[in-house]
Recover the amino acids of this structure.
């Protein structure tokens, strides 16, 4: 293969250009007694305030507690580099290669076929029939949306809340936003819920239509919604920015939206994320012990704005999280749009 022709010196120069980070004294990961794990990011880089950043934090904790001997990462600069970046770690003998986000799924699955000796973890990459060395990790989007709905029902004063969502034909978006609808009704049946999907928008702007997101949020607010939920990449970011500009409370998912947006996210009351860090940390222990699962279901966590979410509401949120996890509370949201 063409990767094998890269000399070690050339590889080092190439990796430095891509943004690799590792411990100063790198061990030989080809030695069977040395357990190494690596992370390949998408083009948003390591510090995305969400899935990738939390995954790296989990790898750092796994190294600190001895589940992993050595960790490293590459920040991809271009989508065309995904497979090359994965291949570098595979040929360096890394035992586990983690990729975070749906955009890396195709490259990760192809690489798993090319390098059967390595274990691959696909964070937020659902696969029905994965290769034996590929562990898909998924998160309960319906439950995360449900929790957001409960919070919105408790925060609204107008008894009208709205959701700005990417296309309903995307299963994750459907689960997030129908989960939101279900959560609002679970908490307060009389609260009105308006859910808007970007079903008529251009495919070329999928997850990247902040203008539509902003316009839709503004329309919902003008219709009486005083809490806005948003899901769907930069489309959602547009909605959250519009809510802040109109001094309307908002709830985000996928990343810590308040931290990511800064002043433009000043009205974000809470963000609800998949618990990527704890999930990948536990997977490192299982894989090193020789017990890799066929798949893994991640948990969720809430990042509240303390000045907006009172302690009593946080206590209720934690009860809802426990109820969802234990099955005492059901979202009744199908996995895909009927």
């Amino acid at each position: 293969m063409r990767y094998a022709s890269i000399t070690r010196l050339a590889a080092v120069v190439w990796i430095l250009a891509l943004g690799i980070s590792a411990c100063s004294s790198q061990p030989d990961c080809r030695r069977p007694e040395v357990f190494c794990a690596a992370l390949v990011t998408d083009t948003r880089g390591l510090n995305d305030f969400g899935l990738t950043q939390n995954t790296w934090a989990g790898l750092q904790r796994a190294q600190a507690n001895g589940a992993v001997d050595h960790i490293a990462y590459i920040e991809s600069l271009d989508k065309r580099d995904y497979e090359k970046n994965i291949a570098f770690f595979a040929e360096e003998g890394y035992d586990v290669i983690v990729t975070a986000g749906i955009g890396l799924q195709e490259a990760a699955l192809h690489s798993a076929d090319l390098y059967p000796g390595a274990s691959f973890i696909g964070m937020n990459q659902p696969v029905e029939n994965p290769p034996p060395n590929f562990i898909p990790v998924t998160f309960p989007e319906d439950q995360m949306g449900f929790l957001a709905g409960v919070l919105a029902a408790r925060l609204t004063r107008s008894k009208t809340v709205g959701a700005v969502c990417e296309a309903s034909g995307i299963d994750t978006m459907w689960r997030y936003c129908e989960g939101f609808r279900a959560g609002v009704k679970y908490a307060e049946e009389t609260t009105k819920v308006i859910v808007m999907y970007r079903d008529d928008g251009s495919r070329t702007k999928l997850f990247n239509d902040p203008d539509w997101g902003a316009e839709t949020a503004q329309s919902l607010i003008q219709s009486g919604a005083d809490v806005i939920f948003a899901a769907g990449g930069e489309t959602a970011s547009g909605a959250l920015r519009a809510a802040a500009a109109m001094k309307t409370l908002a709830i985000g998912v996928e990343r810590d939206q308040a931290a990511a947006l800064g002043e433009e996210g000043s009205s974000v009351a809470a963000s609800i994320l998949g618990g990527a860090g704890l999930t990948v940390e536990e997977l490192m222990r299982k894989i090193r012990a020789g017990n890799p699962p066929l798949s893994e279901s991640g948990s969720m966590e809430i990042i509240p704005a303390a000045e907006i979410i009172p302690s009593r509401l946080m206590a209720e949120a934690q009860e809802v999280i426990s109820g969802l996890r234990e099955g005492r509370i059901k979202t009744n949201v199908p996995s895909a749009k009927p």
